[in-house]
Batch of 3 targets.
Target 1
Amino acid sequence: MRVLGIETSCDETAVAVVEDGADGRRCLAHALSSQIEEHRPFGGVVPEIAARSHLDRLDRLVEQAMTDAGLEFGDLDGIAATAGPGLIGGVIVGVMTAKALASVHGKPFIAVNHLEGHALTARFTDGVVYPYLLLLVSGGHCQVLEVKGVGEYRRLGTTLDDAAGECFDKTAKMLGLGFPGGPAVERAAQSGRADRFSLPRPLKGRAGCDFSFSGMKTAVRHTVEALPPGSLRARDADDLAASLQRAVVAHIVDRCKNAFAMAETRPTTFVAAGGVAANTSLRTALTDLATDQGIPFVVPPIELCTDNAVMIAWAGLERLGLGLTDPLDFKPKPRWPLDAANA
Ligand code: KG4
Ligand code: ZN
């Protein structure tokens, strides 16, 4: 089976073709174009600019992916696109393109939930077997899910306020480290002292595995404001970045510990996904946590943790394999929780 996947829900325009056959799972092409430079002057993603930019780039990327894969459209078994959640202008661009390709070439259309893309990536990269425990940490989400099968998710906890990525992004902005924030904070943290500033540890000792990041963000702001005017020197910024990163990692580990006890079935694997899972110190801490629990920890390579089209093509392929396709009047969804209980 071969599926083309399109991702346009945030600031990456991406098209991929994946195959699952006798020789196993393979990515045949991945054409990705980042809009970071267009959004940088605004210090964050501007939805209107993102939508127009997806429109400008997508056709060319589809062509490039098909050329790189060495395929004709007739060789594909389905066309998948992120149909939500995300910035709706961009999602519409991707969904309309996928529907047009599906309609013209007489192929099934598969509407993929962006979060399901992140959730199933570890099955493509490492063949992880259900059920598994998933920590999904990105710019817009921070949740823990029990993944029991395609479309079968039980949410164990979620953030009560900001997402983890948002916390990194806003901290980077306050420290003048630039955009995108996560990698900038991680870089600064490498030369900083994590014990210089004491930041709050929200919900510590409390049951459940909900998250909260707004208190840490506020504490960073108060710390910056308390420094003598104009004195946010590189040293301070590095130390604050290191302190923040340490607090975020400790909070995530503390909450995930509870999740293991909350799972209905013993998970085969602990999986992390989403852009923040690119963070090395978080990866190390989660590896230790999984080891303590006696199960393996799997995190996809960084380029498949951040937004990409391989995960959308793969989720589309898994759905297609189960006969789960969508009608051409499927409406993109700006908000689309993964678990039915919260839909
Ligand atoms: O999954 P993703 O690419 O997009 C969303 O669906 O949100 O995640 C982007 C988020 C951003 O907030 C970015 O700052 C964060 O992931 N991020 C990181 C790192 N790399 C990306 N956060 C911490 N450390 C990193 N190395
Ligand atoms: Zn994402």
Note: The chain has two domains: 2-120+304-342, 130-300.
Target 2
Amino acid sequence: MASEMTIVVLFSGTGTNLENLIRHFHGRRFGERRCTIVPVTNRPDAGGIERARRYGIETVVIDHRNFEERESFDARLVETIESFAPDLVVMAGFMRILTPVFTSRIEAINLHPSLLPLFKGADAIRKSFESGMKVGGVTVHRVTQELDSGEILAQACVSIERSDTLESFTRKIRQLEHRLLPEVVRDLLDLSDR
Ligand code: GRF
């Protein structure tokens, strides 16, 4: 009988990376293991909620505005994540600053749309595009207390052409993200299609 394998995906926005992970992993069997994606968001209006629903998946919503302190929000988040006993926790566009309440309890990976350690924090795609560099890229790294600073697990890069606009560069970055993140998840969970 197949055993369950759970990936919790934290997101705040459109959720294209969430959908991509669902398409790659949800309901699929890898050897004796069957994979389930559990989406969790801090925003009741996040676009990813509807995307996940199209696959019959309900998102857990923990609205950060209902919590007076970051720590109490983080404590609820930790409790929720732990209740699923996940094999992996992935942040894909989760727009919250995390406290040690979270980072001391949960091991997670994060997807960031720049070649870290360059362009940490918000608006990384634009900063990278406007930097004058000839390449940009994406990074998957471990989550630590310091923003976008944990161990780098994988990176991929793409050229920034003279003809690129912020929009075309953003599309290139999305494509890279959609390729790289599932690769890292596969590696970390040691998944193959056997
Ligand atoms: C991605 O660019 C990710 O790297 C960043 O937030 C964005 C999320 O996009 N941290 P989506 O919601 O997955 O479409």
Note: The mean pLDDT is 96.
Target 3
Amino acid sequence: MKFFVDTADVDAIRELNDLGMVDGVTTNPSIIAKSGRNIEEVTREICEMVAGPVSAEVVANDAEGMITEGRHLAKIASNITIKVPLTWDGLKACKVLSGEGHKLNVTLCFSAAQAILAAKAGATFISPFIGRLDDINLDGMELIAQIREIYDNYDFKTEILAASIRSVNHITDAARIGADVITAPPAIIKAMASHVLTDKGLAQFNADWAKTGQKIV
Ligand code: E4P
């Protein structure tokens, strides 16, 4: 399973990248806005730090505009993945840009039907949004399972990039289903290391060790 980090916070990306835990990065217009930085400048900085795919999202709503923006974003670095929304125009842009050899991440996917179309249009990644489905009392993880089943039935090469991850359980559940990639905020990736019994066990070891009066070095 590949780990993408869902942020434009370069310090947070660097910390995880130094541990070998970053296989790629995803951004979107909201994430860029939150960073307060210029999209090209921050995306270039991320691309220089991370070897894997870095998703940069178009903001035009029409296919022609998306294609123009996508070509422009792709010039930032060789590891750019162009991110387009799962609309009819987004699928048209995906078809054209993937045909030119670019990597495409088709985002804002909320149904298996949408995921089929993205695969047919040549998407490198499909991004089903788990958390936003859960937010409206639908089952985000069930969507991951449906897409996995369909893609396997037909040997579609598009990778399932489980997105809108809000908890550690989202990551482990997506991994069990067989999502190819997860993208999550840095805090959730770091939270994977925490367990109450680890903390409790360590406190006990520290207390017992102090009683021995020994030092290892
Ligand atoms: C994925 O590519 C998106 O940037 C992201 O996962 C959306 O997450 P959110 O629903 O928490 O905003």
Note: The domain at 2-212 is CATH 3.20.20.70 (TIM Barrel).
